[in-house]
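DM from R.C. (forwarded with permission)

"hey, sorry to bug you on a friday — could you get me a structure for this? deadline for the figure draft is monday and I only need the backbone to look sensible"
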Amino acid sequence: MATMRFSLSSLAFFSMGFRPFFLFACLWAGFALVLWLGILSGVVVVPTAFDPASWHAHEMLFGYLGAVFGGFLLTAVPNWTGRPPLKGAGLVGLVCLWLAGRGVVFVSAHLPALFVALVDLSLMIALVLYLGREITIGKNWRNLPVLVMLSLFIVGNGLFHLSAWQGDYAAGEPGFRLGLGVAVMLISLIGGRIVPAFTQNWLGQQGVPPQPVFLPRLDVISMLISGLVLLLWIALGEGSGVGVGLLVMGSVQGVRLLRWRGHLTVGEPLVWVLHLGYGFVPMGAVALGLSYLHPGWIDPVSAQHFWMAGAIGLMTMAVMTRASLGHSGQALKAGVGTAALYWFLIAAIVTRIAGGYAGDLSLIFYSLSALFWCAGFFGFGVVYGPALLSPRRV
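My reply, with the result:
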């Protein structure tokens, strides 16, 4: 009589990286904002060694985005290399490393700083080693820059931990800026491939004549200027020279985005949200530049949220929803639920930035922003959770 053997590989949830990492990333993005709102209200105390604002910044950048990187790259690299995806026990192991990182940072006030840093860095280190092996075996040299940027992301997180251990305001130190700068560059690199490509595909389905949108020279100039300006920002932090550089970066990135014809995609949320998410890259550069040149116009923290909540938050949501639809066997079309997720995040971004101008009412705006943010990310679990837990449709 045959016996049935249980295997982690047989579970749909651990069959591809996007399934657990996207779901856990969104749940953490919502839960961490609930905690942050409690901290702002004075009703929650997190037993972390980081100051409250630095804990919030760290978990939104290195915690949430680390999981999104894991889900996206573990799903994309098999397509890049033709190699089988990581699944089963290996994937569970990476998820556990990420969960362990969130746990030790949360209670880091009671743990040795070096131990906390090593556990928190372990996922990204393992991810770089694994992806490096896959890219090397598959001879996919075109995507080596992604590994370089992930390595810099690890360095940024390590510097963040060092600043926190030294008692500094880590969210204002180079480690945070390095992590955020890497995130912006990865959005520029990967977004520069997928946004125009997906747009061209959708416009072609609508009968719109094709138009050249890939200009290698403009793309190279845009990436070089962005990289140099961000390096200046990481090293110096602020100043009139940095402000001017950020305005130039925003202008070049804006020209690049306009060539992709996003104004023709208003009929499909799954496409226009990619343009809007990428649009927060130039908007954030301009806002941050103005915050240094004209401090009375916008404060730097609000300006950074064009990148943190806008570029990172909305762009990752756009990529996660599209990837989840495609890899679970569903049509690449945004339903009412998916469109609602986008609008919740847009409302969260607008109210967060408006909170910087609200004076005594700022906590109300921050609370509204957190409410919209949680609706978007918890909503992802409601809308996409069943598909992520189920086998791919045939």
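R.C.: lifesaver. The longest helix spans residues 174-205.
me: no worries. The chain has twelve helices and no strands.
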